[in-house]
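Pasting as-is:
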Amino acid sequence: MLSLKEFAIPFGLLCFAIWVWLFASRPWLLLFAFFVTFAVVILFYRNEDVQQILIDAMAQLGNRSVEVLILRYEENLSDAESARRLGTSRGVIAVTLYRARARLKRLILKRLSEDKQP
């Protein structure tokens, strides 16, 4: 019998595959579906586990990436406001934010799949 943690990743991937099939022509719904699916998977993990996974993943990012993520999600600054504060362009902030989120996602999913292994 599968434990909740062992069930979470395959369930999340299956749900996301169904969302892709249903909403492939509507990218904004697809993005919403990803976050909902990710949230459901996270609910299967204890809060301390999630915090530690996030801390470990953020520790593997570069300083600029962490700085941009904090400005966006902790201080709720726009790209333009973050660019002014860091003395760079809005485009650099947007690209850094995109790459940081993508890498963070890969690191978290890798860690979750490692936790699933015996």
